[in-house]
Amino acid sequence: MGDNTIQSSEQNWTTIQNNDTLKTKQGVITVIIKDPQWNEIWQFAAENGKNIAELAAMHGIDIPVSCGAGVCGVCLCKVEDGKDTVKWDAFNSPLMPLKSDEKWNPEEVLACIAGFNSEKFDDWEDHTVVLQRTY
């Protein structure tokens, strides 16, 4: 039996059939959360369509949230790695200034409105995002 590859960008999966076995491969965004002292707290796989605070809460990680709209800054996180993977305005525009690098990639995000660049879920590569809680 030959190799067959079927790709579907709508479902974000690849099936590779080889010698009567099926394998599914999908790019993964791993999110690592650190506390204010840079100690790693937890890591989890990102999900498209969920903000960072929501994903953290689903995994038992406390990122303080007050307004939930990008206004107060309580959920501010520093982006240590994966700046091109994070989208700071995924669910709303931040109403406070946030730091970015020279390419406009975020160096800070508000976890209540930040998510991930959707094209990173579709590029079939693995990505890592490292965030530090500031509170």
Describe the fold and architecture:
The protein has 135 residues and is mostly beta strands. It is 5% helix and 36% strand. The protein is built from 1 helix and 10 strands. It has one helix at 52-58, and strands at residues 4-8, 13-18, 21-25, 29-34, 40-45, 76-81, 86-87, 108-110, 115-116, 127-133. Strands 5-4-10-6-8 form a 5-stranded mixed sheet, covered by helices on one side. A 3-stranded antiparallel sheet has the order 1-2-3, with no helix packed on it. The N and C termini lie far apart (56 Å). Residues 1-24 have low confidence and may be disordered.
List the helices and strands and how they pair.
Layout: E1 4-8, E2 13-18, E3 21-25, E4 29-34, E5 40-45, H1 52-58, E6 76-81, E7 86-87, E8 108-110, E9 115-116, E10 127-133
Parallel strand pairs: 4-10
Antiparallel strand pairs: 1-2, 2-3, 4-5, 6-8, 6-10, 7-9
